[in-house]
Amino acid sequence: EPEVTQTPSHQVTQMGQEVILRCVPISNHLYFYWYRQILGQKVEFLVSFYNNEISEKSEIFDDRFSVERPDGSNFTLKIRSTKLEDSAMYFCASSDRDPYYGYTFGSGTRLTVV
Amino acid sequence: QKEVEQNSGPLSVPEGAIASLNCTYSDRGSQSFFWYRQYSGKSPELIMFIYSNGDKEDGRFTAQLNKASQYVSLLIRDSQPSDSATYLCAAARSGGYQKVTFGTGTKLQVIP
After folding, report:
1. CA quadruple B55, B61, B67, B68: dihedral positive or negative?
2. pLDDT band at B97 (very low <50, low <70, confident <90, very high)
3. B40: exposed, middle or buried (C-beta count within 10 Å: 0-12, 13-18, 19+)?
Protein backbone atom coordinates (compact mmCIF):
# COMPACT_ATOMS: atom_id res chain seq x y z
CA GLU A 1 0.00 0.00 0.00
CA PRO A 2 1.34 3.46 -0.88
CA GLU A 3 2.80 5.43 1.99
CA VAL A 4 3.62 9.00 2.90
CA THR A 5 7.23 9.03 4.11
CA GLN A 6 8.53 11.57 6.61
CA THR A 7 12.08 12.24 7.73
CA PRO A 8 13.53 12.56 10.25
CA SER A 9 11.38 10.72 12.76
CA HIS A 10 12.74 12.89 15.58
CA GLN A 11 14.44 16.27 15.40
CA VAL A 12 15.91 18.15 18.33
CA THR A 13 16.86 21.76 17.77
CA GLN A 14 17.88 24.74 19.82
CA MET A 15 15.49 27.61 20.19
CA GLY A 16 16.04 30.17 17.45
CA GLN A 17 17.41 27.68 14.95
CA GLU A 18 15.87 26.71 11.64
CA VAL A 19 14.54 23.23 10.92
CA ILE A 20 13.36 21.55 7.76
CA LEU A 21 10.94 18.66 7.96
CA ARG A 22 10.75 16.48 4.88
CA CYS A 23 7.95 14.47 3.35
CA VAL A 24 7.52 12.30 0.29
CA PRO A 25 3.79 12.19 -0.52
CA ILE A 26 2.08 9.40 -2.42
CA SER A 27 3.13 9.73 -6.03
CA ASN A 28 -0.24 10.30 -7.74
CA HIS A 29 -1.63 12.64 -5.10
CA LEU A 30 -2.11 16.28 -5.93
CA TYR A 31 -2.87 17.90 -2.58
CA PHE A 32 -0.42 18.13 0.26
CA TYR A 33 -0.81 19.17 3.86
CA TRP A 34 1.02 19.74 7.09
CA TYR A 35 -0.65 19.22 10.43
CA ARG A 36 0.77 19.26 13.91
CA GLN A 37 -0.21 17.71 17.20
CA ILE A 38 1.09 19.04 20.48
CA LEU A 39 1.35 16.24 23.03
CA GLY A 40 -2.06 15.44 24.44
CA GLN A 41 -3.87 17.88 22.18
CA LYS A 42 -5.83 17.73 18.95
CA VAL A 43 -4.44 17.45 15.46
CA GLU A 44 -4.26 20.97 14.04
CA PHE A 45 -4.19 22.11 10.44
CA LEU A 46 -1.19 24.17 9.35
CA VAL A 47 -1.26 24.47 5.59
CA SER A 48 -2.54 22.94 2.37
CA PHE A 49 -0.62 23.08 -0.91
CA TYR A 50 -1.78 22.51 -4.46
CA ASN A 51 -0.39 23.31 -7.87
CA ASN A 52 2.81 24.66 -6.34
CA GLU A 53 1.13 27.19 -4.13
CA ILE A 54 -0.48 27.44 -0.73
CA SER A 55 -4.25 26.83 -0.90
CA GLU A 56 -5.02 27.60 2.70
CA LYS A 57 -3.12 28.24 5.92
CA SER A 58 -4.06 28.53 9.54
CA GLU A 59 -3.21 31.18 12.12
CA ILE A 60 -0.48 28.88 13.40
CA PHE A 61 1.31 29.13 10.05
CA ASP A 62 2.92 32.50 10.66
CA ASP A 63 5.83 34.18 8.86
CA ARG A 64 8.32 31.74 10.40
CA PHE A 65 6.76 28.84 8.51
CA SER A 66 7.15 28.06 4.84
CA VAL A 67 6.50 25.11 2.56
CA GLU A 68 8.10 24.07 -0.65
CA ARG A 69 7.87 21.33 -3.22
CA PRO A 70 11.36 21.61 -4.67
CA ASP A 71 11.04 18.69 -7.06
CA GLY A 72 8.42 16.19 -8.17
CA SER A 73 8.51 14.12 -5.02
CA ASN A 74 9.51 16.04 -1.89
CA PHE A 75 7.35 18.39 0.17
CA THR A 76 9.09 20.30 2.93
CA LEU A 77 8.09 22.38 5.93
CA LYS A 78 10.63 24.94 7.11
CA ILE A 79 10.38 26.61 10.49
CA ARG A 80 12.68 29.56 11.11
CA SER A 81 13.54 31.01 14.52
CA THR A 82 12.05 28.05 16.33
CA LYS A 83 10.28 28.58 19.63
CA LEU A 84 9.71 26.23 22.54
CA GLU A 85 6.01 26.14 21.65
CA ASP A 86 6.82 24.71 18.22
CA SER A 87 7.59 21.41 19.95
CA ALA A 88 5.04 18.96 18.58
CA MET A 89 4.53 16.02 16.27
CA TYR A 90 4.33 17.24 12.69
CA PHE A 91 2.37 15.16 10.22
CA CYS A 92 2.52 15.41 6.48
CA ALA A 93 -0.52 14.19 4.54
CA SER A 94 -1.57 13.89 0.95
CA SER A 95 -4.75 13.23 -0.98
CA ASP A 96 -5.95 12.87 -4.52
CA ARG A 97 -8.90 14.78 -5.96
CA ASP A 98 -11.52 12.33 -4.86
CA PRO A 99 -13.22 14.00 -1.93
CA TYR A 100 -14.33 10.86 -0.20
CA TYR A 101 -11.17 9.10 0.86
CA GLY A 102 -9.70 11.47 3.38
CA TYR A 103 -6.04 11.84 3.97
CA THR A 104 -3.12 9.50 4.16
CA PHE A 105 -0.85 10.66 6.93
CA GLY A 106 2.85 10.08 7.22
CA SER A 107 4.33 8.59 10.36
CA GLY A 108 5.29 12.03 11.65
CA THR A 109 8.33 13.96 12.80
CA ARG A 110 8.62 14.69 16.49
CA LEU A 111 10.15 18.14 16.83
CA THR A 112 11.65 19.05 20.17
CA VAL A 113 12.83 22.62 20.67
CA VAL A 114 15.16 23.05 23.64
CA GLN B 1 -14.31 29.00 15.68
CA LYS B 2 -15.55 25.90 13.93
CA GLU B 3 -15.28 22.99 16.35
CA VAL B 4 -15.62 19.25 16.43
CA GLU B 5 -16.49 18.01 19.89
CA GLN B 6 -15.88 14.59 21.36
CA ASN B 7 -15.97 13.10 24.82
CA SER B 8 -12.34 12.41 25.72
CA GLY B 9 -13.18 9.20 27.58
CA PRO B 10 -11.79 6.77 28.32
CA LEU B 11 -14.61 4.59 27.09
CA SER B 12 -14.18 1.08 28.43
CA VAL B 13 -15.97 -1.86 26.84
CA PRO B 14 -15.51 -5.59 27.29
CA GLU B 15 -14.10 -7.66 24.45
CA GLY B 16 -16.84 -8.67 22.02
CA ALA B 17 -19.13 -5.77 22.93
CA ILE B 18 -20.23 -2.84 20.77
CA ALA B 19 -18.32 0.39 21.27
CA SER B 20 -20.22 3.57 20.47
CA LEU B 21 -18.28 6.76 19.82
CA ASN B 22 -19.97 10.10 19.30
CA CYS B 23 -19.09 13.46 17.86
CA THR B 24 -20.83 16.77 17.20
CA TYR B 25 -19.73 19.54 14.90
CA SER B 26 -20.58 23.23 14.78
CA ASP B 27 -19.88 24.13 11.13
CA ARG B 28 -23.06 23.57 9.10
CA GLY B 29 -20.93 23.94 5.97
CA SER B 30 -19.16 20.67 6.75
CA GLN B 31 -19.80 18.14 4.04
CA SER B 32 -17.49 15.18 4.67
CA PHE B 33 -16.84 13.45 7.93
CA PHE B 34 -14.10 11.09 8.91
CA TRP B 35 -13.13 8.74 11.67
CA TYR B 36 -9.44 8.23 12.25
CA ARG B 37 -7.82 5.82 14.67
CA GLN B 38 -4.65 6.89 16.42
CA TYR B 39 -2.52 4.60 18.48
CA SER B 40 -0.31 6.25 21.08
CA GLY B 41 2.68 7.91 19.44
CA LYS B 42 1.49 7.07 15.94
CA SER B 43 -0.12 8.97 13.11
CA PRO B 44 -3.88 9.02 12.47
CA GLU B 45 -5.17 6.21 10.29
CA LEU B 46 -8.38 6.66 8.30
CA ILE B 47 -11.08 4.14 9.22
CA MET B 48 -14.25 5.52 7.68
CA PHE B 49 -15.58 8.51 5.80
CA ILE B 50 -19.20 9.49 5.36
CA TYR B 51 -20.92 12.32 3.56
CA SER B 52 -24.59 11.30 3.30
CA ASN B 53 -27.14 11.14 6.08
CA GLY B 54 -27.65 7.66 7.39
CA ASP B 55 -25.45 4.68 8.04
CA LYS B 56 -22.36 3.40 6.29
CA GLU B 57 -20.97 0.00 7.14
CA ASP B 58 -17.49 -1.38 6.56
CA GLY B 59 -16.75 -4.67 8.23
CA ARG B 60 -17.07 -4.26 11.99
CA PHE B 61 -17.38 -0.49 11.69
CA THR B 62 -20.55 1.55 11.09
CA ALA B 63 -20.49 5.30 10.73
CA GLN B 64 -23.69 7.27 11.22
CA LEU B 65 -24.36 10.83 10.13
CA ASN B 66 -27.23 13.14 11.02
CA LYS B 67 -26.66 16.54 9.45
CA ALA B 68 -29.81 18.04 10.97
CA SER B 69 -28.50 17.29 14.44
CA GLN B 70 -24.87 17.88 13.41
CA TYR B 71 -23.99 14.52 14.84
CA VAL B 72 -21.63 11.78 13.74
CA SER B 73 -21.07 8.44 15.40
CA LEU B 74 -18.96 5.34 15.00
CA LEU B 75 -20.02 1.89 16.12
CA ILE B 76 -17.45 -0.85 16.49
CA ARG B 77 -18.98 -4.31 16.71
CA ASP B 78 -17.24 -7.29 18.30
CA SER B 79 -14.64 -5.00 19.87
CA GLN B 80 -11.15 -6.44 20.14
CA PRO B 81 -8.26 -5.43 22.42
CA SER B 82 -6.45 -4.28 19.26
CA ASP B 83 -9.20 -1.67 18.82
CA SER B 84 -7.90 0.09 21.93
CA ALA B 85 -6.79 3.47 20.64
CA THR B 86 -7.91 7.09 20.41
CA TYR B 87 -10.60 7.69 17.80
CA LEU B 88 -10.58 11.06 16.12
CA CYS B 89 -13.68 12.51 14.55
CA ALA B 90 -13.03 15.02 11.79
CA ALA B 91 -15.00 17.25 9.43
CA ALA B 92 -14.21 18.97 6.17
CA ARG B 93 -16.08 21.66 4.30
CA SER B 94 -15.65 20.47 0.77
CA GLY B 95 -14.10 17.10 0.50
CA GLY B 96 -10.75 15.55 1.02
CA TYR B 97 -8.72 18.30 -0.59
CA GLN B 98 -9.63 20.93 1.92
CA LYS B 99 -8.50 21.28 5.47
CA VAL B 100 -9.91 18.91 8.01
CA THR B 101 -10.93 19.98 11.50
CA PHE B 102 -10.27 17.34 14.11
CA GLY B 103 -11.83 16.70 17.46
CA THR B 104 -9.70 15.95 20.49
CA GLY B 105 -10.48 12.26 20.24
CA THR B 106 -12.11 9.61 22.41
CA LYS B 107 -9.85 7.05 24.04
CA LEU B 108 -11.30 3.55 23.74
CA GLN B 109 -10.19 0.71 25.99
CA VAL B 110 -11.32 -2.80 25.15
CA ILE B 111 -10.98 -5.02 28.18
CA PRO B 112 -10.10 -8.69 27.46
Report:
1. positive
2. low
3. exposed
In chain B, at which residue ranges do the beta strands (DSSP E only) sit?
A: 4-5, 11-14, 19-25, 32-38, 45-50, 54-58, 61-66, 71-76, 85-92, 100-102, 106-111
CA B83 to chain centre: 13
Q: Which residues of B88-98 are buried (b: 16+ CB within 10 A; e: fewer)?
A: bbbbbeebbbb
Read off the pLDDT of residues B45-80 as tens digits, 9 standing for 90 and up: 999 999 899 999 999 999 999 999 999 999 999 999
Q: Tell me if chain B has a CB within 8 Å of the CB of A53.
A: no
B-chain CB neighbours of A43 within 8 Å are: 44, 88, 90, 102
Q: Which residues of A touch B34 (CB under 8 A)?
A: 102
Q: Nearest-CA residue of chain B relative to A29?
A: B97
Which one of A1, A103, A110 would you mutate to disrupt binding with B, by most B Cβ within 10 Å of its Cβ? Answer: A103
Is any Cβ of chain B less than 8 angstroms from the Cβ of A34?
Answer: no
